[in-house]
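The records we work with from here on pair a chain with its fold. Each token is a code from a learned vocabulary of local backbone shapes. A record is reproduced here so that you can trace the correspondence yourselves:

_____
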Amino acid sequence: MNIVDPRLRGDDEENEKEGTIMRRVVVAAFAILLSFCVLSAPVHAETATKKPTKESLLEAWEQNLKKNEYTVKLEKTTEQGVYDYETTIFPYAGKLKVLNTFIDAPGSYYYDEDDAENFSGTVEVELAGVAKEFKEQYQRSYYAWLRGNSLTYNDRTNKWYTPSEWAGYKKILDTVKDKAVCEPTEQKKEAAPTFLGVLLSWFPMLLLIGVWFFFLIAMRKPQKKQALLVDRAFAHYDKTEKLLEEILEETKRKT
């Protein structure tokens, strides 16, 4: 029958408990580090560009034509796609018929880099009773009027723009870009790192250092226990040796 020293058994149980605690600490530290990396990672999911509809194009065209400074009258009739129309850009009062609406995908034919990223739409119309001679007679004003039927869609604002509105919008964008280039000092001030940003960026490294220190301290405990066990073993050995010597002396005396 093997008799185990209760002190050694207690040390084994304590070592097992410490091993369990160490495993839990490692798992918890890894989970925290992984969750931090996931949360702090930049989101690269690209939002899908919302494609404009022909209905939105036709509605925007109608609103823009109504508020045009040369439009005197624009009213829907009972006939689908037909309007009562009067304008002063050239002498005309009659029926305006929508023949077709179509939308071009970004980069279809634009050479301007800004325009190439946007949808373009056109409403093809017909002025009832207008002959070829009338178009030639009022060629410049007629084609200027036709240009107003082509709109540009911006997915940032979800809005259709007339050529003049789009030119003004691009001017604003260009001004903002020029200002950003000409004032790099302000950009630097805005991009200055904050204490919270620095802390978040260093958090994974600090966490790893903390785990490393924990392991370093935990590894020293078994070494101390092993040294203690060796001392105890030597003490037992000394006691056993003394006991054997006493037994030997007693045996000699009796003989």
About this structure: The helical segments are 6-40, 54-66, 132-137, 139-147, 163-182, 184-190, 195-254. The chain has a mean pLDDT of 75.
